[in-house]
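hey m, so remember when u said the tokens were messed up on ur end? i reran from scratch. heres the input so u can diff it against urs
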Amino acid sequence: MAQYRLPIGMRYATLQERKQFYTEEFNLQKVSKWFRNGLAKTKFAVIMGRHTKIYPEKYKADASTTLIIDEYESLEDFRQQIIEFLPEAVYYDRSVYNEKDQKIGQELAFDLDPENITCPIHGTLADKMKRNQGLSFCELELEMVKQEAIGLYKFLENRFSEIKVVYSGRGFHVHILDQQAYQMSTQERITLAQQVKSVGFHVDEWVTSGEMRLIRLPWSLNGLVSRIVLPLTKDELEPFDAIHDERCLPEFISKEAIS
């Protein structure tokens, strides 16, 4: 099983721990509030074990596949499907669909990952890839990517008014909820992503352009690092400590000693 180098206290979640989290801790009320205009035709997705290689044996053939969940009667029904699959990751589709399942808009988002940071200790992403450690990151990279999220928030404030930041379990996602942003064309999104990158931010252009429409679901569990995907206010971002902050620690981790 591939093992990535992770900050202290972060580790893969076992199947039993995933089941415990989604059975006892997954907060559907908070998930519902994230979708402020209601679920409508929201599509979800799960990946069972692409990176951790931990998955229910009966789903071995689909362990690395992105499975779309677009048929559910309620969030509780959605939760039960998660408990069936016990995935390492849960996502939602940022695209907005009408009753005919036609795309009519898409939430704008920026993805900042720690492995894209050039670390004075561990080098560039290319260096990490050569060591088969492409998803690895250290405490310093985690702090550096947080500072990027703070800077990106300030940069985007000049253009947008409804900005949400989410700690993804590894890096940070910046969501733009302004209504006009939902109607931006692919080219406009690409241009914006390039502008953001030109001033020094390491964003994933594939996410911002909209080609990658899935993004990690707030309040779900990132099974690669055993952290809860946590929305943060602007004021909460600066002092946020992903290693020790109890709000992002599932019970099975908070019971462990983290020095």
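this time it looks ok to me. The CA atoms of residues 3 and 198 lie 33 Å apart. if urs says something different then somethings off w ur setup not the seq
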